[in-house]
Every structure is written in C-alpha cells, then in structure tokens.
Design goal:
The complex is a heterodimer of chains A (142) and B (65).
Chain A lengths: L1 H10 L2 H27 L7 H28 L2 H30 L7 H26 L2
Chain B lengths: L1 E2 L1 H8 L3 H8 L3 H8 L7 H10 L4 H4 E2 L4
Antiparallel strand pairs in B: 1-2
Classes of the chains: A mainly alpha (142), B mainly alpha (65).
GO molecular function, one term (chain B): DNA binding
InterPro entries (chain B): Cro/C1-type_HTH, Lambda_DNA-bd_dom_sf
Organism (chain B): Thermomonas aquatica
Chain lengths: 142, 65
C-alpha cells in the first residue's frame, strides 16, 4: 500500500503536488463550514448578519480553493495546462448545455424540479464533468 | 511531427524523469513528446535544443521527413 502511494506521489508533477498540499486546508474548511451551515441555518433567532456569514463562509473557502487552482494553472507545465484547459472547456460546455436543457424543460412545464436542486445538480455536473474529462485526457498522455 | 528526443536522451543515459527535471516539465510531458502525441511550444523546443547543444530542426522533424 505504501509502495503504491509512493508510486502515485512520484507520478505527480511538482506543481500538482504543491496544488494538492495547498488545497487541503481550504477543502477541509469548506466541508466543515458547509456542514455547519446546514446545521446552523435552521436554528431559530439568527440575525441577518449571522445568516449572511454562514452563507458566505463556505463560499469564501471555495474562492480560496479556486485561487489555489489558478496558481496551479500558472505553475504547471504546458502539457498539464493543456489538459486542464481542455477539461475545463469540456466541463463548462457540457454544464452549460445541461443548464439550458433544465431551463427550457422548466419553462415548458415538462418538469417541475425545485430551483435549489437544479442549482445543486448544475454545480455537481460542472465538477463531475471536469473530473471525468480530466481523467480521460490524462489517459491520452500516460 | 517526429523527433529524436528518445535517441538523444538514451545517448546521454538519462531517464525520462531526469530529462523532465532538467527541462522543468513533468515526466508525462517527456513521454508525450517522445511518443509524438504532443508537439512542444517554441520556448520548450528552444530549451530542448539548448540542452542537447543542437538546433531545433536537428531534433524536431516535420512529418514525412
């Protein structure tokens, strides 16, 4: 198991290793704050500033994570950057198409999905699409 | 585009990882270059040529050459 992990670590580029290290804290903090948000937002008697803080805190963590990603994009080598940008383009394109389909289906009254679910699934599609496209593109360049 | 990267690297006894370190790119990039799956940018092609004391056209050959 350790040998497998070491092999995986060696297969990562220095920029990717730095990105994984840098993204650990914002990711953990995001999960903790998202759980806190889910639990605390239902408490009665919360003032508006507290509610806003509960909403913005996980979003700020995600912005921190995004800043780490942008730094990785700047630091990585040209093939890695090409893979990342291709994956982002695929994810953005397919996410946009899925959103359009959802909007038109909702407008036409064909489906009656709650807005909250649509927003959540759109985000997941974007992230999942990026992950899938990145995995497939990386397999093209072993 | 074809290239003589593997031949030049073998002549110096370097592994893909060693060449990647010298060029400050990932090993994945070296492998993709050697297998012809990826063509380098002009700055990287110049770095490669400088490392092997040659000219770009001595290392990278157009298709059919």
């Amino acid at each position: 198991m350790n040998a497998l992990l070491a092999r995986y670590r060696d297969s990562l580029s220095p920029a990717l290793r730095r990105y994984y290290r840098a993204s650990l804290w914002p990711s953990l903090l995001f999960i903790a704050l998202a759980v806190l948000h889910k639990w605390a937002i239902r408490l009665p008697g919360l003032t508006l500033p507290v509610r806003l803080a509960l909403v913005l805190a996980p979003v700020l963590c995600m912005a921190w994570l995004f800043a780490c990603y942008l730094r990785f994009l700047r630091d990585c080598d040209e093939l890695e950057r090409r893979i990342e940008l291709d994956a982002l383009a695929w994810a953005a394109g397919s996410g946009l198409l899925a959103s359009l389909v959802a909007v038109f289906l909702l407008d036409a009254g064909v489906v009656a999905w709650p807005a909250r679910q649509v927003a959540g699934v759109s985000g997941l599609l974007l992230v999942g699409g990026y992950g899938l496209a990145r995995m497939l593109l990386r397999r093209r360049y072993p | 585009m074809n290239n003589r990267l593997r031949e030049l690297r073998d002549a110096r006894g370097w592994s893909q990882g060693e060449l990647a370190e010298r060029l400050e790119v990932s090993r994945q990039t070296i492998n993709a270059l050697e297998t012809g799956k990826y063509d380098p940018s002009l700055p990287l092609a110049f770095r490669i040529a400088r490392l092997f004391d040659g000219r770009i056209e001595d290392i990278f050959l157009p298709d059919g050459a």
